[in-house]
Amino acid sequence: MINELLGCEIIGTYAIETQELTKRFVLDRGFLDVIRNTGKRDVLTTLDGVNIKVREGEVLGLLGPNGAGKSTLIKILCTLILPSEGYAYVNGYDVVKEGQTARSSIGFVTTDERSFYWRLSGRENLQFFATLHNLPQTQAKARVEELLDVVHLKHRADEPFLNYSAGMKQRMAIARGLLNDPMVLFMDEPTRSLDPGAAKNLRDFIKEHIVGERGKTVFISTHQLDEAEQLCDRVAILDEGRIKVQGSPAELKGSLPEGSSLCDVFSFYTGKAFVEESSSPAPFKLRRERRRGLGLGMKRKGY
Predict the structure, then answer these.
(1) Pairing of strands 85-90, 59-63
(2) Which of 276, 111, 110, 279 is nearest to 196 (CA)?
(3) 221 pairs with which residues across the strands?
(4) pLDDT digit string (tens) for 265-281?
(5) Which residues of the chain have pLDDT under 70?
(6) What is the pTM for the complete model shown?
């Protein structure tokens, strides 16, 4: 929690705060390019002076197109990568200087199904991840049973994870994110690949149970305008690594002529048309790449 002071008066308490947060990646060049352009280096700036504040018990939606920097911001706040400049605090902990303590107070929900063990049951998956949080065996077992009840999957808990529907996998990901009873929960596009009915049920669950009953602070990145409007107390629009505008959905729409939508807000502040991603899952394809020798391809390296 960050206390913002004006003189001796406390203005607000924040669960998440960033100050001029910046992230740059150096692009590793191929051998031939290094020989031809000695001393030159290519730098990609994915975040540029980001300032956000999220109060306790609030749901903040981070809205932006692909490549805007949403995942990079979440990874910094989850202590997965380090910023190049600026400061970031989660639950009052500096994510650089107090990364381990900050990490123990947060949960991260990702849509990557491959992060689960598909041949294990849902219960076995949660028990495994509970051990990674160093929970004692008896406490871990009780916590897993409690969360299976919370996400309404106890009756299917002993089935292999690979048999679960997309909605069930998402609920299992939320259960995993709550294993350490975090104060702040980060969610990266939680309703992606869900049908409209399952997406609505998941949004209701987040709003009513995770925030309403448990009082968690939730930070969500999303491509869905209706999700941002229905679920989030405040929305921040991120584009080209910068926060263009932030406020409640009502405030943002009220800043434009009557009848404006969040889509209009996005277009007004970014100068771009907003394109929502389809919620239907894309077919999985194995991409094969041929190596053609040295000098081709570039990798990103943060600094």
Answers:
(1) unpaired
(2) 279
(3) 62, 188
(4) 989 998 887 766 554 44
(5) 1-12, 28-41, 275-303
(6) 0.80
